[in-house]
Design brief:
It is a single chain. With 210 residues, this protein is α+β, with helices and mostly antiparallel strands. Among the domains are: 13-57 and 98-115 and 141-172 and 198-208; 58-96. The chain has two helices and twelve strands; from the N terminus they run ββββααββββββββ. The chain has helices spanning 59-74, 82-97; strands spanning 13-20, 25-37, 40-45, 48-53, 100-112, 120-124, 130-138, 142-156, 159-169, 175-183, 190-195, 198-208. Strands 1, 2, 3, 4, 5, 8, 9 and 12 form an eight-stranded antiparallel β-sheet that branches. Strands 6-7-10-11 form a four-stranded antiparallel β-sheet, with no helix packed on it. α1 packs antiparallel against α2. The longest helix is centred in the first third of the chain and has 16 residues, at 59-74. The radius of gyration is 23 Å and the shape is elongated. The two termini are 26 Å apart.
């Protein structure tokens, strides 16, 4: 689910289909829905991506790689504290057991059904009282994201467990964050607006290969 640290977002639900050729090149397409994205309700999207998948490693290769990673981590017991070694051990085992990796770039057109968020008001301060208002404006119902990321696959028979970090860039001002602040009893205020362009996502899922 794409998210921005300045705003709230819910999970994303969707399905996708992928097809890959003998040389590792392929594509993916699907549909997504989020009940709450960037402080606005009901986000629908259709992600499409071109991808490259590395060769699937056999079980013996994965076990050997995990063992080497764990051994390298344990060698640091005399130099690092136990917490760092444990994290390195976990990372080495996890990286070693990955069966293949996908790299992808794509585009996600979408539609935002919900309205702009309500205005959030707050007052703070002791000697001087300051007030602040914030809200998210949905400037247009159209949404567009350019995507790039990597997908780590852990294969069990024909099933894949997936972990996918990715970056997303929006070239249009679908979401605009507004802030207005001032001093209680004093005329005038400071207003700012910040279009949201960059988002990060980290998702997981289960797929079936046929």
């Amino acid at each position: 689910m794409p998210f921005n640290q300045e705003v709230g977002s819910d999970g994303v639900y969707g399905v996708n289909y992928g097809h890959f050729y003998w040389n590792g090149l392929g594509f993916r397409a699907g549909v997504q829905w989020s009940p709450y994205f960037a402080d606005v309700d009901n986000y629908f999207a259709v992600p499409v991506a071109f991808a490259y998948r590395t060769r699937v490693r056999v079980n013996s290769e994965r076990v050997l790689s995990a063992a080497i990673g764990a051994s390298n981590a344990l060698e640091g017991l005399s130099y690092y504290d136990t917490g760092d070694v444990a994290r390195g051990l976990f990372a080495g085992l996890l990286a070693g057991l990955i069966s293949d990796v996908e790299y992808f770039v794509g585009v996600t057109p979408g539609f935002v059904q919900g309205a702009s968020s309500s205005v959030s008001r707050s007052v703070y301060g002791s000697e001087y009282q300051y007030w602040e208002k914030e809200w998210m404006e949905k400037r247009t119902s159209a949404s567009l994201l350019f995507d790039a990321g990597i997908c780590f696959n852990y294969r069990i028979w024909r099933f894949d467990l997936k972990l996918t970090p990715a970056m997303h860039y929006s070239p249009i001002n679908t979401y605009v964050r507004h802030n207005e602040s001032g001093v209680v009893g004093v005329e005038g205020s400071t207003k700012t607006e910040s279009p949201l362009h960059w988002f990060f996502s980290f998702s997981g899922g289960l797929s079936f290969r046929f």
